Amino acid sequence: MTLNLTIFAPPKNKNPMAPKKHFYLILILGSLAALGPFSIDMYLPGFVDIAQDLKTTESTVALSLSSFFIGISAGQLLYGPLLDKYGRKKPLYFGLVLYILSSFLCLAVDDVNQLIVLRFVQAIGSCATAVASVAMVRDLFSVEESPKVFASLMLVIAVSPMLAPTAGGYLIAALGWKYVFVFLGLMAVLILLASIFKLPESYKPDPNYSLKPKPILTSFFGVLKNPQFYTYALIGSVTFAGLFAYVASSPTVFMKIYAVSKTGYGWIFAILSVFFIGSSQVNSLLLKWFSSKKIINWALLAQCAVSAVFLVFACNDWLGLYSTIIFIALFLCCLGLINPNAAALSLAPFSKNAGSASALMGALQMGLGAFASVMVSLFSEHSVIPMPLVMTIAAFIALFALWMGKRFIKTEVEASADSTVMAH
């Protein structure tokens, strides 16, 4: 599972720093970027154990994942203005302290509703690390150096979904699910200490920056009025909801229905992440011959076909463990082609307010993802059907949005070949 990171316009007080001379900076920024993905994926193998300990169902436990997505969605809109008004480090410290406190409070929960609330608070905290890491790359490195640093962060974000559930599976099998939150809390403590002592303040606070709702909302509304933005942002967000449906229901599907072990589930999740990440890399090659628009067209059609066949198999009880993995892998391959192109096309019309556009896109992705995960949790936890059902609905809604959106886009701005889009 990956996270969309808000893209900020380069600040005025640029202070270029050479990556080779400041390796520790890249290491700290990479750790900041990895905290969110680890927070999402590492506790997934413990869903069955959490449900048993808290005397509830796996579907209800999945609501703690939904609340995390809601927190991430809200946090992306919150931290952008705070980082510009108060500098980078103070909001970052606030977010990390909030994350640490909520992580350790998770050890004391005896009711699933407490876990759901604490996961929301934890998400608000972790969002500061994701947004601040991108902003500080823009601050600390020159235009020539920053793509290399962003590539390093993207590698960390890409590897996190492969490492987190696998490590979580072994940790839960050995010590129990609460130790995941011990690990995450200690991870955040180390990141906080590194940020205090090794991370410079990269942006001078701007006391004149307004936090009043009106100018912020005016900027967001200006973005939302652009047909190209709302068409492709909706396509990317709705298809991403299919990914969230998979993430939220996968512990139940694999560990309860198919009786896969905690460690086995971690490996399955890691392998499926490779398909998503791999197709995103293939997309970079395809862009040499095809436009983003054409890739989205064909990938959406393929995703609709895959999800529909997946649903037919599920309804007729034709699925087994391996066939389920294959269908999910194909769906994720399509998503890996759709998501980066939809993000690039939605941001293409903007230069001055690209930060607002990116924040809105990230909030929309996480908001719809939270909704999809809630929908999955409302269905029976003794069937695979909810997963392909939500995936199919998401794919066809995205295809309809593309068909309708073309009618309103008068002049389409193509995504530039060197545009930097970091996603999750």
TrEMBL record:
<feature type="transmembrane region" description="Helical">
    <location>
        <begin position="91"/>
        <end position="110"/>
    </location>
</feature>
<protein>
    <submittedName>
        <fullName>MFS transporter, DHA1 family, bicyclomycin/chloramphenicol resistance protein</fullName>
    </submittedName>
</protein>
<feature type="transmembrane region" description="Helical">
    <location>
        <begin position="149"/>
        <end position="173"/>
    </location>
</feature>
<comment type="similarity">
    <text>Belongs to the major facilitator superfamily. Bcr/CmlA family.</text>
</comment>
<dbReference type="Pfam" id="PF07690">
    <property type="entry name" value="MFS_1"/>
</dbReference>
<feature type="transmembrane region" description="Helical">
    <location>
        <begin position="267"/>
        <end position="286"/>
    </location>
</feature>
<dbReference type="InterPro" id="IPR020846">
    <property type="entry name" value="MFS_dom"/>
</dbReference>
<dbReference type="InterPro" id="IPR036259">
    <property type="entry name" value="MFS_trans_sf"/>
</dbReference>
<feature type="transmembrane region" description="Helical">
    <location>
        <begin position="116"/>
        <end position="137"/>
    </location>
</feature>
<feature type="transmembrane region" description="Helical">
    <location>
        <begin position="229"/>
        <end position="247"/>
    </location>
</feature>
<feature type="transmembrane region" description="Helical">
    <location>
        <begin position="319"/>
        <end position="338"/>
    </location>
</feature>
<feature type="domain" description="Major facilitator superfamily (MFS) profile">
    <location>
        <begin position="25"/>
        <end position="406"/>
    </location>
</feature>
<dbReference type="InterPro" id="IPR004812">
    <property type="entry name" value="Efflux_drug-R_Bcr/CmlA"/>
</dbReference>
<dbReference type="InterPro" id="IPR011701">
    <property type="entry name" value="MFS"/>
</dbReference>
<feature type="transmembrane region" description="Helical">
    <location>
        <begin position="60"/>
        <end position="79"/>
    </location>
</feature>
<dbReference type="GO" id="GO:0005886">
    <property type="term" value="C:plasma membrane"/>
</dbReference>
<keyword id="KW-0813">Transport</keyword>
<dbReference type="GO" id="GO:1990961">
    <property type="term" value="P:xenobiotic detoxification by transmembrane export across the plasma membrane"/>
</dbReference>
<feature type="transmembrane region" description="Helical">
    <location>
        <begin position="22"/>
        <end position="40"/>
    </location>
</feature>
<dbReference type="GO" id="GO:0042910">
    <property type="term" value="F:xenobiotic transmembrane transporter activity"/>
</dbReference>
<feature type="transmembrane region" description="Helical">
    <location>
        <begin position="385"/>
        <end position="404"/>
    </location>
</feature>
<keyword id="KW-0472">Membrane</keyword>
<feature type="transmembrane region" description="Helical">
    <location>
        <begin position="295"/>
        <end position="313"/>
    </location>
</feature>
<keyword id="KW-0812">Transmembrane</keyword>
<keyword id="KW-1003">Cell membrane</keyword>
<keyword id="KW-1133">Transmembrane helix</keyword>
<feature type="transmembrane region" description="Helical">
    <location>
        <begin position="359"/>
        <end position="379"/>
    </location>
</feature>
<feature type="transmembrane region" description="Helical">
    <location>
        <begin position="179"/>
        <end position="197"/>
    </location>
</feature>
